[in-house]
Amino acid sequence: MSVTTVRLQAEVEQQLEAIASRLDRSKGWVINQALSEYIDKQHLQQERWKQTLDAMESAAQGKVVDASEVHNWLNSWGAEKEQDAPRSGK
């Protein structure tokens, strides 16, 4: 495990100490948990952004589905004859 030095604002340090005390954990443990969650969130946001760009590119290429087809498909969910997801014509 590596060591990293961080300068914290006084208010952040106080809140960190309070959380660590309440959880009966070290400040280092709390910081590791917080950073792990932050990094996971950043990865998820990056993946969502990539998916958004891919979707925009598909739409620009005309790979779209009419809204009425999507609504009909959604309305069929849970029905006896549930429809397959609509596909673009291209």
Biggest beta sheet attributes:
none
Number of strands: 0
Q: Separation of termini?
A: 51 Å
Helix content: 55-70%
**Tally of individual domains:** 1
What structural class is derived from the secondary structure elements? Answer: mainly alpha
Radius of gyration: 24 Å
Rounded average pLDDT: 95
Number of helices: 3
Poorly predicted regions: none
How would you sum up the global shape?
Answer: elongated
Following the backbone from N to C, one meets helices and strands in this order, namely HHH
Task: Give the DSSP E fraction (strand runs of 2 or more residues).
Answer: under 5%
Classify the oligomer: single chain
How is this structure best described in words?
- There is one protein chain.
- By secondary structure, the protein is an all-alpha fold.
- It has one domain (10-76).
- It is 63% helix and 0% strand.
- The protein has 3 helices and no strands.
- It has helices at 10-23, 27-60, 67-75.
- The mean pLDDT is 95.
Task: Please outline what is shown here.
The chain is mainly α and 90 residues long. The chain has helices at 10-23, 27-60, 67-75. It has one domain (10-76).
Write the layout of secondary structure elements.
Layout lengths: L9 H14 L3 H34 L6 H9 L15
Helix pairs in contact: 1-2
Q: What are the defining features of this structure?
A:
Non-func_TypeII_TA_Antitoxin, Arc_rbn_hlx_hlx, 90 residues, CopG, Transcriptional regulator
